[in-house]
Design brief:
Elements lengths: L1 E5 L14 H26 L4 E3 L1 H14 L2 H11 L6 H14 L7 E11 L6 H9 L3 E6 L4 H14 L20 E12 L11 E6 L5 E19 L5 E8 L5 E8 L5 H5 L4 H10 L1 E10 L1 E8 L30 E13 L22 E3 L4 E7 L5 E7 L5
Parallel strand pairs: 3-4, 5-12, 10-13
Antiparallel strand pairs: 1-5, 1-12, 2-15, 3-5, 6-7, 7-8, 7-10, 8-9, 9-14, 11-12, 14-15
Helix pairs in contact: 2-3
């Protein structure tokens, strides 16, 4: 089972009111491109560390802000996201995907929430309040940014209540007392699901994992033999990689594990990622019975999006003098002082830590093809019906 806590989700659908599948396909690709570009920017800044991010979740928050943005602030958000949120067909498209992906009757549990913490005393536009109430389980909350510790505690409490009730890490704010009105954007998603075929605790063993620096570590590695979708590919520069799809219960969401060849670096594959490439991979995989070796891993990433989104052309909303959010409040001087992304993932045999388990050695000879993630790899969670890339990350050292 896998548990994820992240800043929200973006959703796709082929059914648009008075729309077409052509528009659906265009929006789907634009959204996936935004997701991947955000991941690539984060991957560059984080260098060779473990990483987990929900780029699609960030765009739900940005979509909500787009409702209240005007002028160049609106244009930057529209250019980065690839859509105009005031288009009713786009709203229907996103809302339909939200409904489909959060439908827990299909297997995985997905809980999505988004909040704007607004400086107390700010008069908000009734139209924006109405949009917020209808937008992906969103809410508006008043706070006092002149008391950053109290505001941080308020945000932490909200995150805890919207991430499966687990313990949340304390939120650190950069905000200092300011005479200008401020907004903190916080969004979360909680994902939890059993594997369609669980790994057995008794088959987990300590096996070598070679880092990008060439160090070999012994890490708890899960194993099972299963029929999975699998394929081998080359990048445009002829770097080799293999992809295995590991489905969760209900098969509505799968984890795709992208494993470079021993001679290919992870960064070479990351720079190769695109919406079209991911679609090609997913459609080209073939059913195959394989020995699957996957290290247990747990990753937490914290990002200050104020340091990342400007690289995607979103700058004005963080500038007290340039931000234009008159659609949120006509009082002026409203800007985004905090944009927080906190992500966690834990991948185990079935969701429970296997402390104290004794594993059998599985280094048996077999003619069955082997997929062994014993070196740095990329993973992403993809919604089968819509093709949405929900989460993306990498494992460079499972023991960290």
């Amino acid at each position: 089972m896998l548990s994820l806590v992240l800043t929200v989700l973006i959703l796709y659908s082929c059914f648009l009111n008075n729309g077409s599948c052509d528009l659906y396909d265009e929006l789907k690709e634009l959204k996936t491109e935004f997701d991947i570009k955000l991941y690539q920017r984060l991957a560059e800044s984080e260098n060779r560390t473990n990483l987990i991010v929900a780029p699609a979740s960030v765009s739900i928050s940005l979509g909500l802000l787009q409702f209240g943005a005007q002028g160049n602030t609106f244009t930057q958000l529209e250019n980065a996201l690839g859509y105009n949120i005031h288009d009713q067909r786009v709203q229907d498209f996103l809302y339909t995907r939200y409904e489909e992906v959060t439908n827990s009757s299909q297997g995985p549990v997905v809980q999505l929430a988004c909040a704007l913490f607004v400086q107390a005393g700010t008069h908000l536009s009734p139209d924006f309040i109405e949009h917020t109430a209808l937008w992906a389980n969103s809410s508006l909350r008043k706070t006092n940014f002149s008391e950053p510790n109290r505001t941080a505690a308020q945000i932490t409490e909200w995150v805890t209540s919207n991430t499966g009730g687990g313990e949340a890490d304390s939120i650190c704010l950069d905000t200092v007392a300011s005479p200008l009105n401020q907004v903190a954007v916080v969004s979360t998603m909680y994902f939890k699901s059993l594997w369609q075929k669980k790994f057995s605790f008794t088959d987990t063993q300590s096996l070598p994992f070679t880092t990008a620096e060439g160090f070999t570590l012994k890490v708890p590695t899960m194993y099972h033999m299963a029929e999975v979708n699998y394929g081998q590919f080359h990048t445009a520069s002829q770097e080799q990689l293999s992809v295995a799809e590991l489905p969760y219960l209900g098969a509505t969401v799968s984890m795709f594990v992208v494993l470079p060849s021993e001679r290919t670096s992870l960064s070479q594959i990351e720079s190769h990622l695109s919406a079209k490439i991911i679609t090609v991979w997913a459609k080209s995989l073939k059913r195959m019975k394989m020995d699957i070796f996957l290290p247990r891993f747990r990753i937490q990433s914290y990002f200050d999006l104020k340091m990342v989104l400007p690289a995607l052309g979103i700058t004005d909303m963080f500038d007290p003098t340039e931000a234009d959010f008159k659609g949120i409040s006509d009082q002026g001087s409203l800007y985004i002082s905090e944009a927080i992304h906190n992500a966690k993932i834990e991948v185990t045999e079935e969701g429970t830590k296997a402390s104290g388990a004794t594993a059998m050695v599985l280094l048996k000879r077999s003619r069955t093809p082997i997929f062994k993630a014993d070196r740095p790899f990329i993973f992403f969670l993809r919604h089968a019906n819509t093709g949405s890339v929900l989460f993306i990350g990498r494992v460079t050292n499972p023991s960290e």
